[in-house]
Design brief:
By secondary structure, the chain is an alpha+beta fold. Among the domains are: 5-51 and 143-235, Gyrase A, domain 2 (2-Layer Sandwich), CATH 3.30.1360.120; 282-365, Beta Barrel (Elongation Factor Tu (Ef-tu), domain 3). It has helices at 10-15, 35-44, 64-71, 119-129, 154-159, 207-215, 226-235, 270-279, and strands at 5-6, 19-23, 26-31, 47-50, 55-60, 84-90, 96-106, 109-114, 136-139, 144-150, 174-180, 183-188, 197-203, 222-223, 283-290, 300-303, 306-317, 322-330, 339-344, 347-354. The strands form four sheets. Strands 11-12-13-10-4-14 form a six-stranded mixed β-sheet. The chain has a six-stranded antiparallel barrel with strand order 15-18-17-16-19-20. A five-stranded antiparallel β-sheet has the order 6-7-8-5-9, covered by helices on one side.
Length: 365
Amino acid sequence: MNDVKKTPLYDKHLDFQGRMVEFAGYQLPIQYETISLEHHQVRQSVGLFDVSHMGEITVKGQEAEAFVHYLVTNNIKALETGQVAYTLMCYDSGGVVDDLLVYKKSTEDYLLVVNAANVDKDFKWIKDQATKYQVLVENVSDTYVQLALQGPKAQELLQAKLDYDLSSLGFFRFKDNLDLGSLKALISRTGYTGEDGFEIYVQAKDGPKLWDLLFEGNDILKPIGLGARDTLRFEACLPLYGHEISEDITPLEAGLKMFVDLEGDAFIGQDALRKQNQEGITRKLVGIELEKGIAREGALIVASGETIGHVTTGYKSPSLDKTIALALIDKSYAKIGSHIEVQVRKKTFAGQVISKRFYNKKYKK
């Protein structure tokens, strides 16, 4: 337990009676009330997540643009200053190192936001790839507090706290050095819930002040734990590393081809992904609906007496009140309407393939 980290907001979570668990090397709240209540809070109003455990890595220097473009699957050279890109880092095999957000501050200054469980691995990977480029790569994760304000009332709440007109901030855009109360903040219109919302970065020492500022003067905001963070992202079909993508699951298999620039300038893993695209994938990520039971990660999918894949994430959807799952299966069974069975412990439950669009995202475009 002594090796487990705490974010600068640890005491705030205790003040709100957060049920703390270890996640990605940190003590973090899994829930405050119930996962279902917190899930609906974000879908219907606004909720606040402490995501300070996420990793922040900066890439700076005269060859920063060329290096970041080579590092990730998306077309970084097409980004405008103040724009954010969702993208992936891949191995030469086409498997995924991690998925991440790239913030372009300038052609010589990029902020990469990576998954908490992968920070050390990602930082080493990025440093190792950077040796042929004139760039400085730094892991600055401990210098940031990151809060995610998510839900249909997020803009209304945050707008009351600053002078900048948030209606002018487009989806996957950001503004740096904004005055948020007495704090300086980077604010982006991004999130991991399928709702409109913002991610706010401040200096680590200012984290508790930011938390208090956001709760001050309103009675609609509630803190949200890791449990609802997962059900929300799952309903919106947003991938989680180690589940829908991994070293063994390529972006193409996960349905993320739109974030892979197969025809553009070279990036790590491009040759392998081009080959897979030309030959055709043999596995595909699909939605599953079960008649009953709950299919957890790893549960086997069976059809025609054969194992055809496995569940990557499964829940009873709070928004839909249905038992659904994401599963990676043999492409020949991936047609919507195909009947399958899911093995849950010693029981087998009937189900069928459905669209992965479980929930219509409410992003502000």
